[in-house]
Amino acid sequence: MTAPGRSGHRSAAVLEAVATLTRASGAYDVVSLAVPPDPAWERCRPGQFVVVPGELSRGEPLPTLLWVAGVSVDPVHGTTVDVVLAASDGQRLREGRAQRLLGPLGRGFGLPAQPVPVLVAGHEAGSVPLRWLVALLRERGCEVHLVLSADDPDRHLEVGPLRRQASTVMLTEGDRFATTVGGRLDELDGVGVVYATGSRDQVRDVAAAARDRGRASRVAALDLQEPVLCGTGLCGQCDLRVVVDGQTRRLRPCLEGPVLPGEWVADAAR
């Protein structure tokens, strides 16, 4: 497999979004944003993200990077993009306030060409893309098994809706995340692909667990819970060491990911 390109950024543009609805979900707020119609949103996939530029006048000097939690494109009611923030940051996108937005950015999760059993794993706010991903996998006819981890039960995101979509759901804690994924792979027959989100160490460990069992994996190699300074490839803060075709290289996940083949990430840990 060749290295991913940068096509995820070519269609992204700075646009004006307006928060139209906010609903609480445990420790998080799910915010719906009305955005101008653009074919880029029709092509958007779980694992892509948006950048909310910082505004010095409002005491927000650094940009905020947010996973896209879902996109609704309706010729009558317009295009709506869902994002998720910690409840403590809910004022960052207030209802009715216009907000500049850059997106959608990055390369999202691809779907299997044929229906296969899959295991989807995520940790806390890293799980934001997963409800959307699970829905698309179910539409593709895949049997979906979930492993969700959190260090505080309140930091699980929308477990109820995920339970209704997945064949099985297992909850665990962050320090047992990869171990639990490995255990589920040992128990489940025929899992063709593992999808994972979380911290860099967590997705690397999950990718290693999948590789050691001969399973393909795709992981989000950009952790939006870390301080990310730009999201557009300028700062290099998110640079990651990977191994591609036996060669070690540095990769910039915000441009060449965030979603990468898990073996690239797992092999770099050897």
Structure in words:
The protein is an alpha/beta fold and 270 residues long. 22% of the residues lie in helices and 34% in strands. It contains eight helices and 14 strands. The chain has helices at residues 7-10, 39-43, 130-139, 159-165, 177-187, 200-212, 253-256, 262-267, and strands at residues 13-25, 28-35, 49-52, 64-74, 78-86, 98-105, 118-123, 144-149, 168-172, 193-197, 216-220, 240-244, 247-251, 259-261. The strands form three sheets. A six-stranded antiparallel barrel has the order 1-2-5-4-3-6. The protein has a six-stranded mixed sheet with strand order 9-8-7-10-11-14, sandwiched between helices. Strand 7 (118-123), helix 3 (130-139) and strand 8 (144-149) form a beta-alpha-beta unit. Helix 5 packs parallel to helix 6 (200-212). It is globular. Residues 1-11 have low confidence and may be disordered.
Topology, please?
Elements: H1 7-10, E1 13-25, E2 28-35, H2 39-43, E3 49-52, E4 64-74, E5 78-86, E6 98-105, E7 118-123, H3 130-139, E8 144-149, H4 159-165, E9 168-172, H5 177-187, E10 193-197, H6 200-212, E11 216-220, E12 240-244, E13 247-251, H7 253-256, E14 259-261, H8 262-267
Parallel strand pairs: 7-8, 7-10, 8-9, 10-11
Antiparallel strand pairs: 1-2, 1-6, 2-5, 3-4, 3-6, 4-5, 11-14, 12-13
Short description:
By secondary structure, the protein is an alpha/beta fold. 22% of the residues lie in helices and 34% in strands.
